[in-house]
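TL;DR need structure tokens for one chain.
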Amino acid sequence: MHISTNASIGKNVTLGYNVVVEDDVIIHDNATIGHNVVIRKDTVIGEGCTIADNTVLGKEPFKASISATTEEKSWPGLIIGRHVIIGANCVIYRGAILKDYTFVGDLSSIREDVEIGEYTVIGRGVTVENKTKIGKYVKIETEAYITAMSLIEDYCFIAPEVTFTNDNFLGRTEQRKRYFKGPILRKGARIGANATILPGIEIGEDALIAAGAVVTRNVPPRKIYVGVPAKEFRDVPEEQLLKNQSYYKE
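>> reply
TL;DR here they are.
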């Protein structure tokens, strides 16, 4: 175990075996840190958090020589809010912010310049790339891929294996760099399993994308789209609208 003398550890904090805590880390009261966890410099962990085994917090981003979206800059430390739960074998980068009561499943990766709102669930094996903002009460299920430069508003639902994309040129031409843009999901939008959302597509409030659809055009609010390419099917039923759900808080 290595605990920097410059780290601040609160009351009733439990540390597992082989934990590494680097300089200027702050761990607030009543946190539980599992075995083999590495907490990089400047990371802040809020009160009552649980971090499972073999997770790395505050990793410095590496830039591949051909990366078009990763910036080489000095990122602030990772900020983790109160009562956040982070599973085993996760990697969460510097420059990310996880707000109160966020849940992150095992094997997930969250990049720099990402913000995740309160009570949001990031499922097992989900990847959230850089320059992405995710609202509160969002649920992203197992092994979904959220590409860089995406926006997901409050109360959205993303099923397993959903894929977001941000490059219409598939890595060819310098021109593509001017048009990088991830999808936008407006409040309450829902995406079915294995759907693919093309770059820059906007899914309207309370819209529903069926499983396996490929979305190539913007989707209006409260509409169901199905197929390849996805086309309008019908309106979202009134009883399924977000405003009619018992858990919804404006």
